[in-house]
Amino acid sequence: MAGVTSLPEPLNMSQNIDVKADGVHLEKVPDEEDIVARMNNLDPPVTREEEKKLVRKIDLRLPPFLFVLYMFTWLDRGALGE
Fold first, then answer.
1. In this predicted structure, what is the pLDDT of residue 42?
2. CB of 16 within 8 A of CB of 31?
3. 44: Cα within 13 Å, side-chain hemisphere
4. 3-class secondary structure for the chain?
5. Which residues contact 75 (CB under 8 A, 6 or more apart)?
6. Looking at residue 37, what is its pLDDT?
7. What is the pLDDT at residue 9?
8. Residues 71, 2: Cα–Cα separation, whole Å
9. Rounded distance, CA 50 to CA 72, Å?
10. Taking a C-beta distance cutoff of 8 angstroms, is the pair 4, 11 a contact?
């Protein structure tokens, strides 16, 4: 079969294709583990004091909100009985 060209290698998911006027440019994309490792290094470590402050803030703000939601459900159930 004259004039038949072979197909290029199939691309896997770790390659990025960039088509330009002069041809195809293949570039290796970092694996998911590399991305996760780099993302973990972006945040500074959390100290014990910062964690305590955050938990305290959540403890002060969440229960009153949940109490109000509970009261609305209690009032709604009472209105259904009438």
1. 76
2. no
3. 5
4. CCCCCCCCCCCCCCEEEEEECCEEEEEECCCHHHHHHHHHHHCCCCCHHHHHHHHHHHHHHHHHHHHHHHHHHHHHHHHHHC
5. none
6. 75
7. 59
8. 82
9. 34
10. no
Name the one residue in this structure whose structure tokens are 């709604």: 76
User: How many Å apart are CA 63 and CA 25, to the nearest integer?
Assistant: 56
- The per-residue pLDDT string of the chain (82 residues; one tens digit each, 9 = 90 and over) reads 556 666 555 555 555 555 555 666 666 666 777 777 777 777 778 899 999 999 999 999 999 999 999 999 999 888 777 6
User: What CA–CA distance (Å, rounded) separates 68 from 74?
Assistant: 10
In contact, 15 and 27? CB cutoff 8 Å: yes
Identify the pLDDT of residue 36: 76
- For the chain, the residue count is 82
Q: Which residue has the tokens 């970092």?
A: 30
Tokens of 38: 């780099």
